[in-house]
Amino acid sequence: MNLSESTHTLLSLSQLLSGKVFSTDVRENIRLIRENETQGLCLYVLKEVDQHTEFFEIRELLRKQGHDTSVMWCDREELEKISQQFSAEDEAIAGSSDFQNLNLSLIEEAVSLRGSDIHIRIESKFTSVLYRIDGNLRRMRTESAEWGTRMMNTLFNSMSEQQSHSSLSYNEPCDARVREEFVNSYGLSTCRFASRPGGQGRLAVAIRLVSRRKKSLSFDELGLTPSEENILRRRLSSGGTFYSGPTGHGKSTVCQCSAEFLAVEDTGENFMSVEDPIESPIEGLFQTPRGKQTFGEAIRNMLRMDPDRLYIGEIREADSAIATIEGILTGVSVITTIHNQNPVDILQRLRNFGVELDLLFDPTIISCLVGLRLVPLLCPKCRVPWHVGRESVSPYMRDLVETYAGSEGVYLREPDGCDCCDQSGIRGRIGVFEVIETDNEFMRLYAGKGKLTAYLNWMEKGGVTLCANATRLIKEGRADPVWVHRRICNLDRDARLKMGSEL
Questions:
Q1: Which CATH architecture has domain 219-382+417-464?
Q2: Class of domain 8-85
Q3: 16-25, 296-305, 319-328: least confidently modelled range
Q4: Degrees, nearest 5: CA angle 159-253-383
Q5: Collapsed DSSP state (helix, strand, coil) of residue 174
Q6: Which fold has domain 98-211?
Q7: What are the residue ranges spanned by the domains of the chain?
Q8: How much is the average pLDDT of 433-453?
Q9: Which residues, 6 or more positions from 424, have their beta carbon under 8 angstroms from its beta carbon?
Q10: 153-175 confidence digits (pLDDT tens)
Q11: By Cβ atoms counted within 10 A, which residue in 63, 243, 293, 497 is the most buried?
């Protein structure tokens, strides 16, 4: 089935057939898809429904309305894949309260604006609502403090699950997960709720919008260069591949796409995951939540399930780090994420977690270290040429940009934006990467002479740093140099690292 939201639309049977209500059994096992170019309709139907009287009724009603509708018979796996690829139009929660609907309207608006997070700041006299769009916080509206309190109480107390407290606390931090049935129609698998009290009734809330990926993204769509893609494809097949970076910069997405690449390459492998929690569906994997086990306990339990490969959602502490290495030692290849500023520091983090040195510096065990950041892309309609906007940049910053990125082809963000970018000056984001393929020389230098010696040697042999890739985007006119310097890495980072390295 070659379906996607760019070429097809999932229609509501109830809405198309004048509000007629069908049984849950039929609704869950039939999907009506419209091909956007031809407007042709096709019913994707579970094979077991072929003799159901309601199915014949649906076909007759569609025929009477003049729809020439074809039928494709599916198994349950194929039908579930369709459900994951599209945001259903008729899955709004019936009987939702006013404040539930207000929360859903915020989520819907944030998604429509390409938001990744919603921030709610309840102050003593007012509430601020902000969306993080393309990496930047944007203030959207101001409401009363009472409005904010009722909104967050409703979201946490009646729309969430896996709450850390029985009800929202204004004295202690709280965590929860918004139930999927509330947000599925917006293309989300959940929203992660986290709060922190500010005292005297004040509260800061961050709501991460977890998108349900509609399709597998290729490595070049993620931002990897051809040479980086070749390294990753080569190294994913054995040992451990570790993805690092700050929160919200796409580690999980890239890791999931890597898992799907491996699963498609060999469907005969037993590929399983341990996640906390399960967020986006990963095609080809049997996904499992951590549950009440620690990550280490879950990984060790998974090793008794005869896996060929493991996807581990995150290494958080010593137990999960050591269990991951134990898994690789059994011959199971692993892909996972870890919070680190730079990929070269992953080894030091694992060392701090207690991984033994002879295992830590073995390139057959830790085979690839990947760092990434998401960089906002300048709106091509309103971006400002460097020679036009350079006077608005501080003298220090002007010198830095012109020294390390030049001025030819460089552009700045238009602060007021245009209609094309919703007055933000930014249109989308792309990843910049640093992919370190470990070998015996890299590990020997790291163990004997330290991190910087190994890293500089990797650079001298042609390794492309995250800073170099970010600078490439600047020179291509796709990224704002000031933003990159402040948010991604100093433009002079590589030059400073190399300074004095020959001594």
A1: 3-Layer(aba) Sandwich (3.40)
A2: alpha beta
A3: 16-25
A4: 100
A5: strand
A6: Beta-Lactamase (3.30.450)
A7: 8-85, 98-211, 219-382+417-464
A8: 96
A9: 133, 134, 136, 138, 379, 417
A10: 999 999 999 899 999 999 999 99
A11: 243
